[in-house]
Amino acid sequence: MPDYGRPLRFGVFPTPEAGKLDEVLALARVADEEDLEYVGIQDHPYQRRFLDTWMLMATVLAKTERVSVFPDVANLPLRPPAVLAKSAASLDVLSDGRFELGLGTGSFWEAVEAMGGPRRSPGEAVDALVEAIEVIRLMWSDQRSVRFDGRYYRLDGVKPGPSPVHPIGIWLGVGGRRTLALVGRTADGWVPSSGWATPDRLPDMQARIDEAAVAAGRDPAVIARIYNVWGAIDGTGGFLQGGIAQWVAELTELAVEHGMDTFMFGPSEDPVPQLQRFAAEVAPAVREQVTRHRRG
Fold it and tell me: What are the contacts of 244-247 at 24+ separation with CB within 8 A?
């Protein structure tokens, strides 16, 4: 699997528990102050212990100055894409360009349905995602009014706006054959998680993205590869469970052999001190190792 040569990025993937708000905001401050690039927040509106992701993202952006924020990833069945596009553009304007859009097909269909959302088959969920991307981009366009007539979503002369202040990336948190091809054809990034997109699965998944990108006339290197990883520094052993040297070696391998360029850390214990060590000791060393590798 090639190294696409993209700049390395690092961030934190906090769990948006209402009862741990102080901890979540502390993690965002560490990311902002210690030169990490992103805060990614999962979106499960039906989870009673979780804060609303969009309200939390707005709060994080208001309390930080430099770090960018994105939903990791937005729950499309419960977020109509035209409204989602306006929310994303609004956060981008309010934060002076510090917002990206992670987007998924949806899951946990019983919970989605219990909250009033649609239950979709796997094929329907993919088709709806394809339509949603078109709707979102129309809503970010500079056209006076836009129309779209799809099976799942419609626009009937709506006037787009406000415009984002920077080109917001659409990053897809997907893993199926059709959706990986969709990443390659049209998305700006891919957001898998190490729990289901394990390192041994990455080569085949990356290849599907790259084949679709080339077939669509795109350079695969324009697609960001964002990897959600869980673990503990100085943990009990196993993947991303060892000391600093192990973390540096494994993340470096993921970058130079598996093509991942952004690492979103979900600490499995002691989140704030773990993130501080990640920012101070792991991320700089990985950058150094990858730079050395690229220079040959």
Answer: 244/277, 244/281, 244/282, 244/285, 247/278, 247/282
